[in-house]
Amino acid sequence: MQASPDGAGQARSLLSYSLLLLLLARRQIKRVIGMAMKKQQQEQVVVAVALLLLVASAGCASAASCSVGQLAVCAPAISSGSKPSPGCCSNLKAQQSCFCQYIKNPSLGRYVNSPNARKTLTSCGITPPRC
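The structure assignment produced for this chain is given below.
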């Protein structure tokens, strides 16, 4: 028995439609991934700017011992939750006495006290502060 010509045509149409949907879905997935990557980059910029704002607003007395600019190397770990670099951990350990000051700063508090920042501290073997 042969399939009717109408049945074969419908099967081809359905296959074409399915392929079109797959192509559209693929484009949409690429677009969403691109947007997610841009958002992550934007978050890193926001963290870096916030760190720089704290440096600019730090008083002379605290400038000698606390330098939030040294924590800029930690921006990728804090914004994305990825594993911190050895340089990040080294700078965090050197800045431990400054954490409460950073947390209390309105410009930085939400970044320094975020879940990803706490995860970064823990990954570096540092106990998150209780201020």
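Interim note for the steering committee: The chain is about 70% helix and 0% strand. The domain at 5-123 is CATH 1.10.110.10 (Hydrophobic Seed Protein).
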